[in-house]
Specification:
The chain is an alpha/beta fold. It is built from 21 helices and 12 strands. The strands form 3 sheets. It has a 6-stranded mixed beta sheet with strand order 6-9-10-3-11-12, sandwiched between helices. The radius of gyration is 35 Å and the shape is elongated.
C-alpha cells in the first residue's frame, strides 16, 4: 500500500523528483571525491613538503566542498517541496473521500480515526518522503561508491568491509522487525486517545453535571498512558539503533587503524591512503546509518499508509449514478413505497414496509417512541442512507437515480442535533445560500423566531458563533439551524425533532410562521410533542420501525392505539379533543 500511495502521489511531481535526484547525485560525487583529494595532500604534499601542491589541492577541495554544500541545500529544498506537495494532495483526496461517505462509512471507521488518518497518518508518510528525498540517492551512492573507492585505495583491508557491513545490516534489521508491531499499536492507541478527548470536549457539560471529572481524567490518563508505553517501547528500540551503529563504526575505525598500521610500518601503504580508506569506510557506514533512518520510518509509514489506503479504497455506499435522472417537474412531492431499511450487520430492520406520500403544500408529521426509526426515515429522503428495500422518490424520480447535488438542492434538512460552524451568525446562515443578502437573512431569522435575540447581540449578523454553537443556548441554536435551512429556500423542508428545545409559545409561533410563509412547500416534521404536530395534514405513527397509523389527529385518536397512548401521556382529554 505504501508503494502504491507513493507512486500515485509522487507521479504529478516528477520534475521535482528528478531535481532532487540530480542534486543528491552531485552531493554524493563531491563527498566521494574529498577523501582521495585529502590522501593526495598528505602523500604528495605534506610528506614531500610541496607547499604549492597543498595550496592547489586544498583549493580544489574547498571548491568541491562548496559544490557539496550547495547541492545538499538545493536537494533539501526541492525534497521539502516534494514532501509537502504529496501531503497536500493526499490530505485533499482523503478529505473529499470522507465528505462523500454516508453515515454508514463514517460509523464504520469512526470520526476520531478518520481525523487521525487525515492528520497524523498523512504526516508520517510525508515525513518518510521528506527523509527519502534527503537520503534516497546519497545513502546508496555513499555505500556503493565508497566500496569502489575504498577497494581502489587498499584492497588488502577490504575484508573489514565484508565484516562490518553485514554486521551493521543484521543488527539494524533485528531492531526494525521488532518496531513494526509497536508502530501498529501506537496508531490504534492514538485513535483511542483522540476518541476520548473528542467525547470529553463534546460532553463537558454532562461530565460536570454528573461530577465525573475525576473518572474522566482517569480514563484519559489511561489512554494517554497506553500511548506513552507504546511510544517508549518504540523509542527504546529506536534509541538502541544508534548506539549499535556507532559501535560498529567505531570498532571498524579501530580495526582499520590497527591492521593498517602494520602496512604503513612495512611501507605497504602510505599514510594518506590509509586515512582515505578509513574515510571511505566511514562514508560506507554513514550511508548505511542514513539508510537506518529510512528503516526506522518505513514501518510506521507503512502502517499509516495501510490505514490511509483503507479509507481511499472504501467506496461510499451512497454514490452518484452514472446517468442521473432529472425529475420532469419540480414541486417537492415525496413518496415512500414499501420502504425497508436495515443497518449493516443488524439482525432486525430499522424500518419495514413504510408507505406514504407527502404532497407539496402540506405538512406531514412523524411521531413515535424513542428508537422507532424517525430520524432514519427522514435521512432516507436526503439520501444519507440508501434503502435496503422499496424506494423513496422525489417528484417522480427515485432518489438513487438522481444527481446528489440536484436532490440536496431540493431538500432542506434541519438535523436532530443542530450544529453551527465557527464563524458568525451571517456565515452560518449563508451555508444555505452563499449569495443571500442581509435582508434575506433577517427574513429567515424572523420566520425562525430568531430575529429578536440576534438583534440584541452587539454585532447582530456579525456576532461570533463558536464551533458547534456552544456560545448560544440550545433553543437559539435550533432556531439558527432552522433559519439556515429557510435561507436555502428548498422545495422540501425536513425538520428532524427541530422544535424540541423551544418553549410551547415559540413552537406555536414558529409553526404558524412556516405555514404562512411556505404555503407551497412540502413540510415533514419529526416531533415528540403532540402539540407540535396535532394540526398537521397527516401524521405518520411509527412503532419499532413499522407504520401503525397514518391520518389526521382526530382520525388517529379513533383508530390508532399507539397514537392514543402518546396523546394521553401528554395531553388531558380536553386538550386532546
Amino acid at each position: 500500500m505504501l508503494g502504491r500511495i507513493l507512486g500515485r502521489y509522487l507521479a504529478p511531481a516528477w520534475p521535482l523528483l528528478v531535481l532532487v535526484v540530480v542534486f543528491q547525485l552531485g552531493q554524493s560525487i563531491a563527498s566521494l571525491a574529498l577523501p582521495t583529494l585529502n590522501a593526495d595532500i598528505i602523500d604528495k604534499g605534506v610528506v614531500t613538503g610541496d607547499i604549492g601542491y597543498i595550496w592547489r589541492t586544498g583549493g580544489v577541495m574547498l571548491a568541491v566542498t562548496l559544490v557539496q554544500v550547495v547541492c545538499a541545500l538545493v536537494a533539501v529544498y526541492f525534497g521539502s517541496r516534494l514532501a509537502m506537495g504529496l501531503g497536500k494532495r493526499l490530505r485533499a483526496d482523503l478529505f473529499h473521500r470522507v465528505v462523500a461517505f454516508s453515515q454508514r462509512e463514517v460509523g464504520q471507521f469512526g470520526a476520531p480515526s478518520l481525523i487521525t488518518r487525515n492528520t497524523n497518518d498523512v504526516q508520517q508518510v510525508q515525513m518518510l518522503v521528506q527523509m527519502s528525498a534527503t537520503v534516497m540517492v546519497s545513502a546508496p551512492m555513499l555505500a556503493i561508491g565508497g566500496i569502489i573507492m575504498a577497494v581502489r585505495q587498499d584492497a588488502g583491508l577490504s575484508w573489514l568491509m565484508a565484516v562490518a557491513i553485514p554486521v551493521l545490516l543484521l543488527a539494524v534489521s533485528l531492531i526494525v522487525v521488532r518496531m513494526v508491531p509497536a508502530f501498529t499499536q501506537m496508531q490504534a492507541r492514538i485513535d483511542r486517545l483522540n476518541q476520548i478527548l473528542r467525547e470529553q470536549l463534546t460532553g463537558i457539560r454532562v461530565i460536570r453535571a454528573f461530577v465525573r471529572e475525576s473518572e474522566e481524567r482517569q480514563r484519559f490518563g489511561g489512554a494517554s498512558e497506553g500511548v506513552m508505553q507504546t511510544a517508549l517501547r518504540a523509542g527504546n528500540l529506536m534509541a538502541l539503533m544508534f548506539p549499535v551503529v556507532m559501535l560498529v563504526m567505531n570498532l571498524s575505525s579501530a580495526a582499520v587503524i590497527w591492521f593498517g598500521a602494520d602496512q604503513v610500518q612495512n611501507h605497504g601503504v602510505q599514510i594518506g591512503t590509509l586515512f582515505a580508506f578509513l574515510n571511505y569506510l566511514m562514508q560506507i557506514l554513514m550511508g548505511v546509518m542514513m539508510a537506518t533512518f529510512m528503516f526506522v520510518m518505513i514501518p510506521r509509514a507503512a502502517v499509516c499508509a495501510d490505514r490511509i489506503g483503507q479509507v481511499l479504497d472504501t467506496e461510499p455506499s451512497v454514490h452518484a449514478p452514472a446517468h442521473p435522472e432529472t425529475p420532469a417537474h419540480a414541486g417537492g412531492r415525496v413518496v415512500f413505497d414499501s420502504v425497508d431499511f436495515t443497518y449493516p450487520g443488524a439482525e432486525d430492520a430499522v424500518l419495514e414496509g413504510i408507505t406514504f406520500t407527502a404532497e407539496p403544500g402540506t405538512t406531514t408529521a412523524i411521531i413515535g417512541s424513542t428508537g422507532a426509526g424517525k430520524t432514519t426515515l427522514v435521512g432516507l429522503i436526503a439520501r444519507l442512507f440508501d434503502v435496503t428495500g422499496g424506494s423513496v422518490s422525489v417528484d417522480g424520480a427515485d432518489v438513487r437515480t438522481m444527481d446528489p447535488d440536484d436532490l440536496w438542492a431540493r431538500v432542506g434538512l434541519v438535523p436532530q442535533r443542530a450544529f453551527l460552524f465557527a464563524g458568525t451568525v451571517a456565515s452560518n446562515l449563508r451555508y444555505g445560500d452563499a449569495g443571500a443578502t442581509d435582508d434575506d437573512l433577517w427574513r429567515a431569522l424572523e420566520l425562525a423566531q430568531a430575529k429578536d435575540f440576534v438583534s440584541e447581540l452587539d454585532a447582530g449578523l456579525d456576532a461570533p458563533i463558536a464551533q458547534g454553537g456552544t456560545n448560544v443556548s440550545g433553543g437559539q441554536r435550533q432556531r439558527l439551524a432552522i433559519a439556515r435551512a429557510l435561507v436555502k429556500k428548498p422545495e422540501i423542508h425536513v425538520f428532524d425533532d427541530s422544535f424540541s428545545a423551544l418553549d410551547l409559545r415559540t413552537d406555536a409561533a414558529l409553526r404558524h410562521a412556516l405555514d404562512a410563509a411556505l404555503p407551497d412547500a412540502t413540510r415533514i416534521v419529526v416531533a415528540q410533542r403532540v402539540s407540535t404536530i396535532q394540526h398537521a395534514d397527516q401524521i405518520l405513527v411509527l412503532d419499532h420501525g413499522r407504520m401503525v397509523g397514518l391520518g389526521t389527529h382526530d382520525h388517529l385518536l379513533e383508530t390508532c392505539e399507539t397514537y392514543r397512548e402518546i396523546v394521553e401521556s401528554q395531553l388531558s382529554a380536553k386538550e386532546a379533543a
